[in-house]
Amino acid sequence: MGLGMTTLADAVKRPERKTARAGVSRADVYRLSESPSHLLRRAEQFAAEKFLKSDLPDGVTLRQTVLLAAIAEAPGASQSDLVRITGVDRSTLAEMMARMERKGLIARSAAADDGRAKSVSLTTAGRNRLEAALPAMRLVDEALVAALPRNKRAPFRAALLALSVTADEAHLAEDAAQKKEKKDAKAKKAAALDRKRRKNKKKRSRR
Fold it and tell me: Could you tell me which of 195, 178, 183, 181 has the C-alpha nearest to residue 83?
């Protein structure tokens, strides 16, 4: 079992410990073993270590496989869709896709409903790369779930799904806010230009 999951198990089993310094309340001490964000990072490290130790073709990474799987699950998805699905930030995802396109793993074309957006799909080479990595992905999933007691597995999946849905909602809200901000800025600029044109028109009419 990886270090990350050991930390999680220990955090559950260990009795509450007293602080080493006298006069310092327990609430004043930030304990990593009680931090959800830290424990999630350790679990992610555990998953990445399991993936790397699997029998994989050279050059296959966990993040790349996640992206290939996302494209396979949602063929024709845009880059914005893939940012939301994978959780990879936009700039990192753009760099990944550029490298993968050069390697012939994915193909990008203008989206049918928006010529400015790019529709992404797997090539035959990309599908083969994904198929080669799927056993390792399944092994990682099994290892994460197997680290928990049976009665904790379904709640664990449900909690992860709830966090994912919340992240999706936050991403969509942020995207909508950015679009509104751009639209408002464009409208404000157009209104300013219109006022300027009318002002100039009045000046010319007075001459």
Answer: 178
Which residue range is the domain that position 7 belongs to? 1-14+29-53
- What is the model's pTM? 0.67
In the chain, the N- to C-terminal Cα span, in Å, equals 86
Domain assignment present for residue 43? The answer is yes
Place of tokens 């012939």: 104
**CB-count burial class (<10 Å; 0-12, 13-18, 19+) for 120:** buried
User: Both 42 and 115 in a single domain?
Assistant: no
**Paired tokens of 76:** 């024709």
Q: What is the pLDDT of residues 152-207, one digit of tens each?
A: 999 999 999 999 899 888 888 887 888 888 888 888 888 888 888 888 877 777 76
Give the model confidence (pLDDT) of 60-70 as tens digits: 788 889 999 99
CA quadruple 160, 162, 166, 172: dihedral sign = positive
Residue 41: strand, helix, or coil: helix
